Amino acid sequence: MAKYKPQHTRLLFIDKHIREKRFPNCAMLAEGWEVSVRTIQRDLDYMRYELDTPIEYSAKHRGYFYTEEQYQLPAINIRESDLFAIYLADKLLAQYEGTPIYESLQSVFRKIEDCLPDKVTARSGNDQGLFTVFPPFSTVILPEVFETVLDCLRTSTRVEIEYQSPGAPPKRRQVDSYHGVRFEGDWYVVGFCHLRRTIRTFSLARMVRVKKLPERFTLPRDFDFRQLAASQFGIHWGTDEVEVKIHFAPSAAAYVRERVWHPSQTMAVQPDGSLILSLTVNHLLELKRWILSWGEAARVLEPPTLVEDLQRTAQGLAARYSVS
């Protein structure tokens, strides 16, 4: 069913232009929708012969018109809840503002909006003040980096990157891009690094230069991103799973209970109103940062290695903020 949606959207686009009495021709419609003239001609034939649309060509105006004044192509069967979902999705695009993909997504939504019936489109305009989306802090990615990496990901083509890891000089690598990830304002690509001979995660913001190579690759059959990232807390992951238990004071327990922080989590409410959160992860870097964000309200119980790591961090912070 989904494969027919793009054509139906085009038909609504054609219908809208004809009803506005612009006398559009194939070339104008093809340019407006960014498809071939032949595609538009097939759409017009489909409207005329399959949908019985009263459409004719005017030699005088060099374009198409409806012979029935009030005719309108049946539009999408859309409910108010569907329309509001489209409106919310449009608002959520703010998360991608400043990225190369933003303009493309905006273009898609404008085409959808243009194809909605006038009465439905006008109704959505009354909802413009209901929601505001504050986008996350975003990294700065060079447009040519984003476009090249996305192209290599889509076409299974090897890419050469000059990668700037924090605190280290740029290093050139060749990567087979397996999977793209958007996480907390940054874009990442997960793939096979030919330098390290293993699967690694690379931030697009740290790519200084990229080059599409002629070599193609085949995605390994045993690669499953969902399985690879099943126990991660954040964007980093490892091979060894660790069970972590964190005690949250009563002042923070209510906030912790409000969210699902990890698929493996369990919560045990204590008699004093505090909470013990248990979860199994395969990397501790971002979990440690998250625990520290709770300040004194969070205390790690297990594993001992994480407890010791946080003790060293706390001692370092105390020394840095000590009053001489």
CATH fold name of the largest domain: SH3 type barrels
Percent range of helical residues: 25-40%
Structural class: alpha+beta
User: What's the structural domain tally?
Assistant: 4
SSE order, one letter for each helix or strand? HHHEEHHHHEEEEEHEHEEHEH
Number of strands: 11
- Broad shape: elongated
Strand order of the largest sheet: 6-5-4-3-7
Short description:
With 324 residues, the protein is of the alpha+beta class.
Give a description of the structure:
The structure is a single chain. By secondary structure, the protein is of the alpha+beta class. Helix content is 37%, strand content 23%. The strands form three sheets. A five-stranded antiparallel sheet has the order 6-5-4-3-7, covered by helices on one side. A hairpin with a 5-residue loop joins strand 9 (266-269) and strand 10. Helix 1 (5-19) crosses helix 3 (37-49) and helix 2 (26-33) packs across helix 3 (37-49). It is elongated, with a radius of gyration of 27 Å.
Structure keywords:
324 residues; alpha+beta; Arc Repressor Mutant, subunit A; SH3 type barrels; 11 helices
Secondary structure: elements and pairs:
Layout: H1 5-19, H2 26-33, H3 37-49, E1 55-58, E2 63-66, H4 80-92, H5 102-115, H6 118-125, H7 143-155, E3 157-163, E4 171-183, E5 186-193, E6 198-203, E7 207-216, H8 225-228, E8 242-248, H9 250-257, E9 266-269, E10 275-281, H10 285-292, E11 298-302, H11 304-320
Antiparallel strand pairs: 1-2, 3-4, 3-7, 4-5, 5-6, 8-10, 8-11, 9-10
